[in-house]
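Comment thread on ticket #2218

A.B. wrote:
> Attaching the input chain for the structure job we discussed in standup.
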Amino acid sequence: MVHSFWQWTMKKYLFVDDDGAFLEVLRLFFGSSPHVYLSDVRQVASVLKHNGPFDAMVTDYDMPYHHGLALAEWVSQSYCKMPILILSGHKKPDLLPPFITKWMQKPISLDVLADEITQCHNS
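C.D. wrote:
> Ran it. Output below, let me know if you need it in another format.
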């Protein structure tokens, strides 16, 4: 499925991943504005405060300082209710916490990721 530029500029996404090269690929695919791409999980609070709200957050699971589940729980409790999608090379837990919308395995195609983000708004 080909995703048009306007589709991504009508929503605002927060991407968090400690892999800068992967974030750059996401930036090239989804575009820069209005999305925010963070390689340091410690910046999330400031970005949510100054740039929020977001339509969804896509975060890596395994990162320095916080893992994705802890980040997702904190965001859902502290800031806002928004779809939160986890990307991980780890196996999906048998039971996902209620604040996680979707768990996706890495590597992932950008088209599949885009479809999953779109579906989280339609459910």
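A.B. wrote:
> Thanks. Noting for the ticket: DSSP finds five helices and five strands in the chain.
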